[in-house]
Amino acid sequence: MSATKTLFDKVWDSHVVHKIQDGPDVLFIDRHMVHEVTSPVAFLGIKNRNIPVMHPEKTFATADHNTPTINQHLPVADPLSANQLKMLEENANEHGISYWGLGHAKNGIVHVVGPEYGITQPGATIVCGDSHTSTHGAFGAIAFGIGTSEVEMVLATQCIMQPKPKRMRININGTMSKGVTPKDVALFIISQLTTSGATGYFVEYAGEIFREMSMEGRMTVCNLSIEMGARGGMIAPDEKTFEYVKDREFTPKGADWDKAMAYWETLYTDEDAIFDKELTFDGSLIEPMITYGTNPGMGMGISNDIPMANAVQGGATTYQKSLKYMDFNEGDSMMGKPIDFVFLGSCTNGRIEDFRAFASIVKGRKKADNVTAWLVPGSHKVESAIKEEGILDILTESGFQLREPGCSACLAMNDDKVPAGKLAVSTSNRNFEGRQGPGSRTLLASPLVAAAAAVTGKVTDPRELMVELV
C-alpha cells in the first residue's frame, strides 16, 4: 500500500526530474510567466550562452509593473520603463513567446491574466520572476517566485533546482463575519504568524472558510502567503476550481479535458497525511483588518488599538522605529485617522469581485474631498466587466475615476506614486517603508475598508456603512 501524501507532495513529486543527493530537486516547470522587470537580464544570459528558449509555448509574457495606468495609447514617458517594456517585446518576439503588451486585449497583471485565460491549472508547477506568483496556488498548483538567474535557467531548460520545502497546513473553520473578506483572513493569518512564521514551508489552506471562498478570494489568500515567509500557498481544487478553469483559452478541451480531470480529481491531501506543522484558527473571530506598521505582519482588527511594544514579538526599538515612520503611537486607535490616498487594485485585489465589494460601499455616497483615489483593474477583462455590470456608473456617480490595467500603486515602479508623508489605504500586499513611493505610508486593507475610507476621508469600519445601507 502506497504511503499517504499531502496535496503538495503529490504535485511536487510528480514533477521531480532528478533528485540530487544531499541537494535540491530538479523540478520540471509547466508554466513560466515573465514580465518586463526580471526578464531582460535572463534573456541576455541565454543570448550570451547562445541557448534558445527550450519551450517557448510554455512561457507567457505580459507587461505590468512599469505600465502607466492612464493614456496607455501614448508612448511611455519614463525612459527606464519604456526601455524595459521594449526589451520584453523584443525578447518575446525573438523567441516565439506569447506577448501581451500595452494595447493588447489580454494585457494585465501577470497573476490576474494567468488564471483568466486558463494558463493556471490544477496540479501544475508555475514560476515567475515575481514574489506573488503564489497567487496561482489557489488552483491546487505549486507556484512560487524566482530570481533572475532562475528565470534564465527555466528559459533554457524548463527546469529549476529547488530544495523541497517543509509542509504546513493552516485550518480555519467557522464562517466569515459581516464585513470580513478573504483579504482580512489573509492579514489575520499573517498577524498571527508574523512575516517569518512560515519560512521554509509550503502552506496548504484547509477548512470551511477556504472551501466557501470564491476562486478570486482564494487567489487573494494564496497571493499573500509570501508575506508570512512561506515559499508559497495552495488550496485543494474542487468543483469551484474546475468550473472556473473550464472552457478558458488555454485549458484542455474534449478528450484532453476528461484526461486532465481524471488527474485533477486526485489532487487532495490524503486523510492520514502528516504535515511538519499544523495550525488551526476560528474564522468567526476574524474582523475587518488593517495594518499599522511597516510590514504586513503588523496588522490588527480595525476596532482594536495599536499594541504596546511589550505585547508584540520582536525588539521594542524596531517596533517603535516602525511606528515613528508611520507617525503613529502605541495605544492609538486606527479609527478616525485621516487618510490621503486610496488604492484599489494589484494582483491581490484587482479582480472583479474586489470592484463589486468597493462599489457596494460607495454606492449612493460621494468620494471624500481630501482623498485621491486610484482604482485600477488588474486586466482588460476586469475593466470590461466593471463597465458591463454597471459598476463604472456607480463609481462615476460617486466621484471616482477608473484607470487602465496595471500594477499601479502597489509599488513605486510607475507613475502612480504616493507622495512622501501621505497616508494611503491600499488593497495591495506590502506596506514596507517607501513601497508606494519614497516616504509614503501604507495601511493594507480589504476593498471594503478602502471604500469606507474613500467616502469618509478617514479610517472607518466598513460595517458601520454596511449597516446604514440595510
List keywords for this structure.
single chain, 470 residues, alpha/beta, Aconitase, Domain 2, Aconitase, domain 3, 3 domains, 18 strands, 32% helix, 16% strand, globular
* Quaternary structure annotation: single chain
Low-confidence stretches: none
Q: Based on the coordinates given, report the CATH architecture of the largest domain.
A: 2-Layer Sandwich
Determine the N-to-C terminus distance.
56 Å
Number of strands: 18
Total domain count = 3
In CATH, the topology of the largest domain is named Aconitase, domain 3
Question: What is the residue-averaged pLDDT?
Answer: 96
**Approximately what portion of the residues adopt beta-strand conformation?**
15-25%
Work out the radius of gyration.
Answer: 22 Å
Given the structure, what is the number of helices?
A: 17
Most strands sheet:
5 strands, parallel
Brief account:
This protein is α/β, with parallel strands linked by helices and 470 residues long.
Structure report:
The protein has 470 residues and is an alpha/beta fold. It folds into 3 domains: 7-164 and 238-259, 2-Layer Sandwich (Aconitase, domain 3); 166-236 and 269-285, 3-Layer(aba) Sandwich (Aconitase, Domain 2); 290-468, Aconitase, domain 3 (2-Layer Sandwich), CATH 3.30.499. 32% of the residues lie in helices and 16% in strands. The chain has helices at residues 7-13, 40-48, 79-95, 110-116, 148-157, 182-193, 208-212, 215-223, 239-245, 255-264, 316-326, 346-349, 352-362, 380-388, 391-397, 447-456, 462-468; strands at residues 16-19, 25-28, 31-34, 59-62, 98-100, 125-128, 142-145, 159-162, 166-173, 201-206, 232-234, 277-282, 289-291, 299-301, 341-344, 372-375, 423-426, 441-444. Helix 2 (40-48) packs across helix 5 and helix 13 (352-362) packs parallel to helix 16 (447-456).
